[in-house]
Here is the input.
Amino acid sequence: HPTVFLERTDSTNNEAKRMAEAGASHGTLVVAENQEAGKGRRGRSWSSPEKSGIWMTLIMKPEFPPSQASMLTLVAAMAVAEGVRSVTGLEAGIKWPNDIVVNGKKICGILTEMSAEPDYINHVVVGIGINANMEEFPPDIREKATSLSLELGEKVSRAAVIAEVWNAFELYYDKFLENADLSSLREKYEAHLLNRGKEVCVLDPKGEWRGVARGIDRNGRLLIEQTGSGDEGLRAVDSGE
Ligand code: BTN
Here is the structure.
């Protein structure tokens, strides 16, 4: 698959979307040294200092229906956890659905964006930002974010991390395609899932409730056992904070 390397761009996700619209093929990877307007989820910005991070986006033109696309983010999260573990030995875990955490702090975020018609996908872009070699963080995120080099005590090879992440992704993506869902990846995902067995608080449009996270279902929804209410059994939540 082709890889496009850029010194700078606004956001590798934006670049990937422009390229996908212009005909770039499935599997094209866009990597940039510097993003001038890196994007996070929920309209937030993503700080992307030059030469210290891994900012990359994969262009995909899959055949499965649009409803399955959000699961790619979970597949990507598994690939990052695996890639980071194999290169650095750090115990990277997943905070559902797709934050990668080392020693309690975030080292990676994933932003998946899709262009689709009601029954088919034009393209999906899977954007991954890994804090590789940053030496410090702005005060407002210092408590919550870290980098691989800060946790490891030495610089990491960004090329090695990129290679291992996509090696793992290829493997997991093939498994995902077997059923176009996460049924054959659930166990593996749950092994990385930091929320498992922990109390979570769900911010629902209808109000807030608590429970214990037990795992995910085949569609990637978090399964929560409700505590302190009359409701028995597991409830599945789609997204939220
Ligand atoms: C999050 O909010 O956790 C998601 C952050 C995603 C950041 C990556 S960096 C590469 C790609 N390009 C972007 O503009 N965003 C994603």
